[in-house]
Amino acid sequence: MVSKPSSAASARTVSVLALVAAVLVGAFLAPVVYDAAAPTPDRVAVISVDGYISSYTADQLEEDLHEARENESIKAVVLQVDSPGGSAAASERMYLAVNRTAQEMPVVSSVQGTGASGAYYTMLPSESIYVTPSSVIGSVGVRGSAPIGGSSNEIRTGPDKASMTVDQREAQIETLKHAFVGSVMDHRGDDLSLSREEVAYAKVYTGARATQNGYADDIGTLQTAIDRAAAEAGLENYEVVEKEPQAQSGIILLSSDSGDSTVVIEESPVGYDGVRAPQFLMVYGQVQYEDEVIGNVSA
Prior knowledge:
- By secondary structure, the protein is of the alpha/beta class.
- It contains eight helices and 15 strands.
- Helix 2 links the parallel strand 1 (about 45-50) and strand 2.
């Protein structure tokens, strides 16, 4: 005769299995629940400004800074700069984006290589600018291509439609120069040992010299800038998040043994194929353009 298990034994077995299942599920879910409940750490965002400044560069920086402003965990921004500048319009957009961000949180800049012309314009709203002794910064000026003269086989509705004299083009460049120099004086005028006229010479300086004339605040590494940004935000414990620039085609930046840079533009920086539009640049280095006129020489 085979004995049947009692109902009490079956109940105990079910209870044991349920307990084991509960333990296993709890062990699996516990880290997830803990992570969800853990507070988000405060962060310092490091955003790169690298290479020739184009509309694409401005798009990227505007997007990164917008994300920093919208992310409540990001309390400060460090700009990691290595750029000779580029398009005047793109540089102005980047300056405005940094200026807006600096009104909401500390922004500190770190120049490890070159931070000249449009790149220097970009970081002007920074709380502090750190450089290395061999960094190159400055070049507060604007340059642009000269208008093409000669007759045209086009019929135009007005004498100034799609044409401009050298004097008119120089007047436009002078207007951009005044805005650039004015921004330098607004943001760093109290620190500068140079006059407005000397700034408008568009000279570049090594990092060591720049800390003496007020173009930069101090010698320091990227970590120095991060520490300063965190201190400005009142952070003791924080994480660092980095935003690297995406690859951009069509622009090649070369450096010569003399220390000068050459910007080779393989595509129109303004994006108008077949149309020779005015090209205003805030860039340091030799640009390979034909019929170029330089207003307030920046190199």
